[in-house]
Amino acid sequence: SVIFAMFFTLAGAHFDLGVIKTAGILAAVIILARFAGKFVGVRVGASISHASPEIKKYLSFGLFPKAGVTIGLAMLIKECQAFSNIASIMINAILASVIINEIIAPPLTKYMIFKVGEAGRRE
């Protein structure tokens, strides 16, 4: 939609390749911490709910995509005076993590759907 195109264009305009070296480390931490949280959360939730082993093993791959809300929150950082010294690094780290997630998330989601046996299934 046009709104999404404008939203992502605005976010991309704030992306600064000059700080990507510093922001890249933070982006990697964000990605790894987020995936670890999803992985642990799925394991705990699946154990509590007695979900199938396939769900317990693969569901975290389907929870990896993110974008819209994350970018919106990142843009708010720029307006907050408390973060004025590090806003550029934070915004670029968050945008880099979104870009990486949007590249790797669809194949991971497809992998998960096939591994749990839901692909091609009709009810």
Q: Can you put this structure into words, describing what you see?
A:
This protein has 123 residues and is an all-alpha fold. The protein has one domain (18-115). Helices cover 75% and strands 0% of the residues. The protein contains 5 helices and no strands. It has helices at 2-13, 20-48, 53-62, 68-79, 87-115. The longest helix has 29 residues, at 20-48. The protein is elongated. The protein starts with a helix and ends in an 8-residue tail after the last helix. This is Cation/H+ exchanger domain-containing protein. The chain crosses the membrane at residues 25-46, 58-77, 83-105. InterPro entries: Na+/solute_symporter_sf. It comes from marine sediment metagenome. Keywords: Membrane, Transmembrane, Transmembrane helix.
- Taking pLDDT < 50 over at least 5 consecutive residues as the criterion, the unreliable ranges are none
Question: What is the number of helices?
Answer: 5
What is the distance, rounded to the nearest whole angstrom, between the alpha carbons of the first and last residues? 31 Å
* Rounded Rg: 17 Å
Shape estimate: elongated
Q: Kindly estimate the percentage of residues that lie in beta strands according to DSSP.
A: under 5%
Taken in chain order, the helices and strands follow as: HHHHH
Q: What is the multimeric organization of the chains shown?
A: single chain
Helix percent reads: over 70%
Tally of distinct domains: 1
Average pLDDT taken over every residue: 80
Number of β-strand runs: 0
